Amino acid sequence: MKNNDVKIKELKIIHEQWTDTLVLKNNDVIIGKIKSMNKGVLQIETDYSKSDFKLEWKEVKFISSSRTHIINLTSGVLVNGILSKSKTPNKCEIKNVETQITTEVNLRDIVYIKPVDDSFWDRLDASFDVGIKLTKAENLQQLTINVNLGYTAKRWFATGMYKQIQSIQDNSEPIRRIDTDLSYVHLLPKDFFIPLSVTTLSNTEQDIQLRILSKAGYGKYILRDNKKYWGVATGLSFNHERYFNSSEAYKSLELYLGTDFNLYDIGDFSIQSKVNVFPSITESKRVRTDFNLDTKYDLPLDFFIKLSFVYNYDNKPKNGAAKDDYVFQTTFGWKLD
């Protein structure tokens, strides 16, 4: 009798764990545990596969789950809700756990799903890529490293980034560039958000020993669907700089205007571009610009190839330093979901 009770309890635990159901347009049914839906791709864990399934969101016809999820709509609505199957294909019902109001929406109007009860590791995303170049000519040795981390909570997300490029060759001064970025974004209703960040730059080409940039602002997603997003933001930044061969620190207050565009419904490709312009408030007629472009091609087993282009411009650099600098990288990497 006790053994039967144990078996019944085990079956109940398994049933409760795999309660999320998907019905695809070809009428295939997948039962498991939804991990996330973002950028038009849904990821679901099942008990009959060692790796998670990833499928295009547009292929889903019905969805249901008894768990609470963070759900974001194209209208900018952000809700903690429970997904229920609708009687109409390509639609679902969302029950707001805070107001207990149930609303029917089109599946195409859902741009983001994330379980609220996920553990720390489920909410963490990470990727790493590296590039190495060695040539006999002039004994060239070049190394590039990129590390990206991301964490998603109910109403906010945080990202961390580290990029390094280092080049050494005979009859030439060593080249080194290190970029870091620690960002926090708090999500608000109607697709507004509050961005906070601290970035650093060390760059031998522009004679920058260390630049620390602290930013705070206010932004909005102009476009956000399962094919692309486009966000804009503005605010203030505090710039603290030190240059090589100089003990003096330079400090300035700047206005910043930024835009971020991401396109991801193009097969295994994704493209992201960021532009930030910094007109100085305390330094007359000084304007800086940062531009980033990342193109990624996804490979099997979560590997990828990435092409990156970074450009920095300063119309009033330190005497003797270059006004601009750019880096073009081709790297191979792996992503942890």
Automatic annotation (TrEMBL):
Domain of life from the UniProt record: Bacteria
Pfam families in the record: DUF481 (PF04338)
Record-given protein name: DUF481 domain-containing protein
